[in-house]
Amino acid sequence: MSARANSAPSSLPNFDPRQVPVVGIDSHLPAVAAQWLLPQALQQRFAAPPTWQPEILLEKRFSDRVQANASVLLPIVMRGAWRDQPTVLLTQRTAHMSTHSGQIAFPGGKADPTDADAAATALREANEEVGLAPEFVQVLGALPIYTTGSAFVITPVVGLVDPGFTLQTNPIEVADAFEVPLEFLMNPAHHQRHRLDWQGVQREWYSMPYHDAATGKEHYIWGATAGMLRNFYRFLAA
User: Fold this and answer.
1) How many domains in the chain?
2) What is the pLDDT at residue 201?
């Protein structure tokens, strides 16, 4: 869950995550080498996963709602003439959404009783939100379940995306869709750590602000979205 590009409200009242000081940047950790971000390497990593430890699995609750199962698609678009410039497709939620309004997120949403499994949920939601048809996605596997402070129990499904798709965003749910280089996201020098005391509870999270030179926009990736990306980094770096 991350913030709106201009004004950045969240589920916490009067809260702008960009105003919370950075308490650390993990520049001392190695970036994932570019060759490990290529399609074959990603396929091999999921086919024979290493022993590794996810960093964040459970956020501190700030909502009393009943937990809901959900899935998101972590879509790796294989850009470049040689499929060697992978990006991650992200969305910015519309401002009127009931939860996580205006925030940057992966395509995804609540599980439907008709969904066969978590991957089916992720693919269906991605199709509904941004028009990414399932035939363009090769599902590689899933990262560990991530439970948000807003009571969503999320399965992050990772997939390789053929770049031949055409985006058709749902204006009710999606204000914007954009891509961020995977190499940028898998470099801990871009992972900022934040800490905030709120109502007697200390909360911590990551942010990964990305400035798109082509559009001039800054996309402020933080919270659960950044947390799942951090876990993905740990998986690839193990």
Assistant:
1) 1
2) 78
Which of 186-214 are b and which e, b meaning 16 or more Cβ less than 10 Å from the residue's Cβ? bbbebbbbbebeeeeeebebbbbebeeee
CATH number of the domain within which 172 lies:
3.90.79.10
| Cα–Cα distance, 102 to 156 (Å, whole number) | 20
Is residue 153 included in any domain, yes or no? Answer: yes
CA distance 149 to 67: 10
Q: How confident is the model at residue 14 (pLDDT cuts 50, 70, 90)?
A: low
Residue 10 placed within a domain = no
Torsion sign (Cα): 213, 191, 10, 92 = positive
Distant-in-sequence, close-in-space partners of 21: CB < 8 Å, separation ≥ 6: 194, 195
Q: Is residue 189 situated within a structural domain?
A: yes
Residue 91 sits in which domain range? 22-237
Residue 236 structure tokens: 């690839």
Residue 6, pLDDT score: 32
> Average pLDDT in the 139-167 region?
96
Report yes or no: 79 and 85 within 8 Å, Cβ to Cβ: yes
CB atoms within 10 A of CB 71: 29
Query: pLDDT tens digits, residue range 35-74?
Result: 999 999 999 999 999 999 999 999 877 777 789 999 999 9
Question: Which residue type occupies 49?
Answer: P
Asked whether 88 and 55 are in contact (CB, 8 A), the reply is no
Interval 108-136 mean pLDDT: 97
Structure token digits, residue 55 = 């960093």
* Residue 2, domain member (yes or no): no
